[in-house]
Amino acid sequence: MTRLLLSVCIAVSLMTGSATAETEPSYAILGFEDLDGWEQDDHAAALAVFRNTCRDFKDPQWTALCNVADDAGDARQFFELFFRPVLITDGQDGLFTGYFEPELDGSPVPTSRFRHPVYKMPDEAKRVRPWMTRRGILTSDVMSGKGLEIAWVDDPVELFFLQVQGSGRIRYPDGSFIRVGYGGFNGHPYSSIGQELVRRGTYQAHQVSADVIKNWVRRNPEAGEELLYHNDSYVFFREVSEVPADRGPLGAMNRSITTMRSIAIDPAFTPLGAPVWIEKNGRDPLRRLMIAQDTGSAIKGAQRADIFFGTGDAAGREAGRVKDPGRLVVLMPIQRAYALLPDSEQ
C-alpha cells in the first residue's frame, strides 16, 4: 500500500523478525500442470487485476503482453499461451503473511479526544538522513507550527500500526473519511516491537500478534510508550483521498490494489506487476493467481509474499493470523523466462 520502506504487515513474522535471502537465486521453468489447483482458479479475476497495472511496464516484452491482455477472451488461455511459470529460489523457505488497510477514527481538527497528529513529511527530514528518531519527533516541538498535520486520531497505538501498514483510512465524526498513503520516513531502520517483547521474555514468539501487542501496550501505558519508542523508524503520510472509497489503497505501482488478488513481493526477484501463482499452506490453504503490485522492506526473498486482505478490522484479523509456508511461482513472458536459465539449460 505504497509500503516502500517499512515492515508493512501486521503479521506475526514481521513482529518477530524475518530472514533475508543470502544466496544467489536459482530458476526452474515449470509447466502449468505443475501448479496445484491451477485449473480451478478464477483466471478472469486475475486478468482484470493484471490489466490494472500492466500498462506501467516499460519493457517491450511486457507491454506487448499488456496489449494482448486487453483483447484476451479466455483468461486462462491467455496466461498459458504467453507465460511460463518460473520457480525462483534463494535458499530460504517460503513464507506467506497478510496485510490490510487500517481504518482509524479521527478528526480534521484537534479535540480533547483526537489528540494524536498524522504528519506530512517535513522538508528537513528529506534533506537529512537519517533524521530524528521516533522518540525525538514525538517528545519535542520539532513538528509544531509547520502546518504538517493531515488529521488527528484518538489512539496512538493504532497510529503506530498505521505507520507499520503504510496507509489507511481515517473516519471523521460526520461519517466522511480521508485516505492516507506513505509519504516518506525518517531514515532509521525498522525495529520489531514484537521481537523486543520476545527478547524480554514477555511473550514467546508463537504468542505474538498485532492484537497481543496492542493490548499489552494499552494495559501498560508507560512501558507501552517506551516499547513503541524502541522502533526508531517513523513514517510520514500524504493524503490520497482521490482514490474512490470502493477501490483499494494505492500499492507500490501507484494503482489501487485488490483484496485477495494483490500481493507484496521482493522486487529484487519478482517484477512489480507480474502474475504470481501462490500455493499457501497452513490452516487455510490458498491456491490462487495473484498480481505483484506492492512491496515492503520486510518482504525480502524470492519465496516471500504478503497477501492483501482488504480494509478494516475484519480484514486485519484475517491478515494477522497468516504466517504460513508454501511456494510462489512467477509467471514470466516466455522469452524472459528462458533467458533466466543458465546457458547450459537453455
Comma- or semicolon-separated keywords:
single chain, 346 residues, alpha+beta, nine-stranded mixed sheet, six-stranded mixed sheet, 12 helices, 15 strands
Description:
By secondary structure, the chain is of the alpha+beta class. 28% of the residues lie in helices and 25% in strands. The protein has a 9-stranded mixed sheet with strand order 1-2-15-11-12-10-13-3-14. The protein has a 6-stranded mixed sheet with strand order 5-6-4-7-8-9, covered by helices on one side. Helix 2 packs across helix 3. The N terminus is likely disordered.
Give the gist of this structure.
The chain is α+β, with helices and mostly antiparallel strands. It is 28% helix and 25% strand. It starts with 11 loop residues before the first helix and ends in a 7-residue tail after the last helix.
